[in-house]
Design brief:
By secondary structure, the chain is of the alpha+beta class. It has nine helices and ten strands. A four-stranded antiparallel beta sheet has the order 3-4-5-6. A two-stranded antiparallel sheet has the order 1-2. A two-stranded antiparallel ribbon has the order 7-8.
């Protein structure tokens, strides 16, 4: 190795250290940037060689060379984080909807369950004094309160459904938008690969898009060279630069290319689950309560006599929670509290009071409503309990990933000091070789003198 080779070795060390300092500075500058992945300089030693050796026809004087810059990222940690994001997204939506569903029957005190109890209790009070107008007014008022509570419950259920439908549209649109953006990034990455560039910022952008997408629905990610394919339920959402959008057919997510149902998870899956399973069950129970109430009370009421000695007429109208109401034209005097036609007979009012506890068809109407309230409460509690471990799992996965990809100020400062010392050492090599060359050229005399 000649002296000029020593210079080249020193300069290569200066170049590598300078590049390392630049990348470390970039890491420090982006320590708080969301989605930024820590970089590092990839270097390799340059092997000694001699131009006359057949095994090494290219003369390389040694030193170090910068091969490029890479991101410090782990695919396994990425997959774990995105799987946790899918679970957490679904758990959050389930907990949110369950909390809203719990309030469908109104507050614990004064809600639909209390209104049902107050209605049947009003008949017991009427039986004590069947000719008392205040007691009869109280029965009608309790009946109107009960029907309003059932109507409100149906409306609240419908409001939740409308909100879910709106969110499904938003989430599907966002999934399609993310798919389009990922395809665009794939195209830029393909161009960069042809040009031999290292578009690390584009890679960070792509990973950030994938992170958001994984919360909205379950995805499978497959990498091909520099590009990424994204699959949802086994079907390709993104393949290279091509995108197959998800669209809604009567509210159901389907693939735009073939109309097949899209198998989704995450937030979208939880929304579809709530709309197709949770809400229909609530609506069916509410409608059954309203229908049973209307039928059983009307049938029993028809067997008694009102204050004028006439057979009881219809008490309720409507057979669903949305439509049930006190029958038009029913007056306090028209309440059939008597079993004999005698105005002072309140025996039939007691029979009407017992309708709420009639279990001849299975659960009584009061029990069915109470059971629904219990189910809504337990479902909300269970969903809330499931939310916490899902969030904790996501947090742990994010922490593990950040330990690899995130910027640690302490580590970067230590790396900066190391690179500074490496730069100073390489500069010393250049200075030393320069002194040797100066001595060689200027202090050894001239030829022939």
């Amino acid at each position: 190795m000649g002296s000029f080779d020593g210079l080249r070795i020193g300069v290569s060390g200066l170049t590598a250290a300078q590049r390392g300092i630049e990348i470390t500075g970039q890491n420090l500058a982006n320590a708080g940037t969301e989605g930024y992945t820590r970089r590092r300089v990839e270097v390799a030693d340059v092997s000694w060689g001699h131009p006359t050796l057949p095994s090494n026809p290219t003369y390389r004087p040694g030193g170090i060379e910068v091969e490029g810059t890479s991101r410090i990222r782990d695919d396994i940690e990425d997959r774990a984080f995105r799987a946790a994001a899918t679970q957490s997204g679904a758990a959050d939506v389930r907990a949110e909807i369950a909390a809203r569903a719990e309030n469908i029957l109104g507050p614990l005190e004064g809600g639909t369950v209390d209104s049902m109890g107050d209605f049947f209790t009003s008949f017991e009070e009427l039986a004590l004094d069947p000719s008392d107008q205040t007691s009869r007014q109280r029965v009608l008022a309790a009946a109107e309160q009960l029907t309003r509570s059932l109507n409100d419950a149906a409306q609240r259920t419908q409001a939740v459904r409308v909100d879910i439908d709106g969110r499904v549209v938003q989430v599907v649109n966002r999934i399609d938008s993310l798919g389009d953006q990922i395809a665009v990034v794939n195209g830029h990455l393909m161009q960069a690969a042809v040009l031999g560039e290292q578009p690390l910022t584009l890679l960070d952008q792509r990973d950030k898009l994938l992170d958001e997408l994984s919360r909205l629905t379950a995805v499978t990610i497959r990498k091909r060279d520099t590009i990424t394919d994204v699959f949802v339920g086994g079907m390709p959402l993104v393949r290279g630069t091509e995108v197959d959008a998800i669209q809604l057919d009567s509210g159901t997510p389907v693939w735009a290319s073939n109309g097949r149902p899209a198998v989704v998870g995450g937030e979208l899956g939880a929304l579809i689950e709530a709309r197709e399973l949770t809400l229909p069950s609530i609506e069916a129970t509410l409608d059954n309560v309203a229908s049973t109430l209307e039928t059983s009370v009307n049938d029993t009421h028809a067997l008694g006599f009102d204050l004028n000695g006439l057979p009881g007429g219809a008490f309720f109208s409507g057979s669903t929670a949305e439509t049930i109401a006190v029958a038009a034209g029913l007056t306090p005097d028209g309440i059939a509290a008597s079993s004999t036609g005698n105005p002072d007979d309140g025996a039939h009012a007691l029979v009407l009071a017992d309708v709420g506890d009639d279990t001849s068809g299975g659960l009584s109407v009061s029990e069915e409503l109470l059971s629904l309230a219990g189910q809504l409460g337990s479902s909300a509690a269970a969903a809330d309990e499931a939310r916490a471990p899902a969030a904790e799992y996501l947090e742990r996965a994010e922490t593990r990933r950040m330990e690899t990809t995130g910027v640690s100020l302490d580590e970067e400062m230590a790396e900066l000091i190391k690179l500074q010392r490496a730069y100073e050492a390489s500069a010393r090599v250049v200075s030393t070789v320069d002194e040797l060359l100066d001595r060689l050229i200027n202090a050894t005399g001239r030829v022939g003198l």
